[in-house]
């Protein structure tokens, strides 16, 4: 990491684009700006079905 700004030509950081909305799925966390919560829930539901989503149900702190 070389700074707290995006690289030249890259989009602004998510938190610099407006109010961030967080939606939890069963196995996902979706963050969005300028999206309706219903849309973010749809994305979370799709992410939960992905084989890439972890199948664990709890994390153990170290």
Q: pLDDT below 50 for ≥5 consecutive residues: which ranges?
A: none
Query: How many runs of DSSP E, i.e. beta strands?
Result: 2
**Helix share of residues?**
10-25%
Structural class per helix/strand content? alpha+beta
Biggest sheet statistics: 2 strands, antiparallel
N- to C-terminal separation? 25 Å
Lateral strand order in the biggest sheet: 1-2
What is the count of helical runs? 1
Rg, rounded, reads 15 Å
**Binned strand content:** 15-25%
Would you list the SSEs in sequence order as H and E? EEH
Mean of residue pLDDT values: 83
Outline type: extended
Overview in brief:
By secondary structure, the chain is an alpha+beta fold. Helices cover 21% and strands 16% of the residues.
């Amino acid at each position: 990491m070389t700074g707290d700004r995006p690289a030249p030509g890259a989009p602004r950081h998510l938190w610099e684009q407006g109010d961030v909305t967080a939606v939890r799925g069963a196995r996902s966390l979706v963050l969005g700006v300028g999206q309706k919560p219903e849309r973010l829930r749809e994305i979370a539901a799709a992410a939960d079905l992905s084989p890439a989503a972890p199948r664990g149900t709890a994390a153990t702190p170290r």
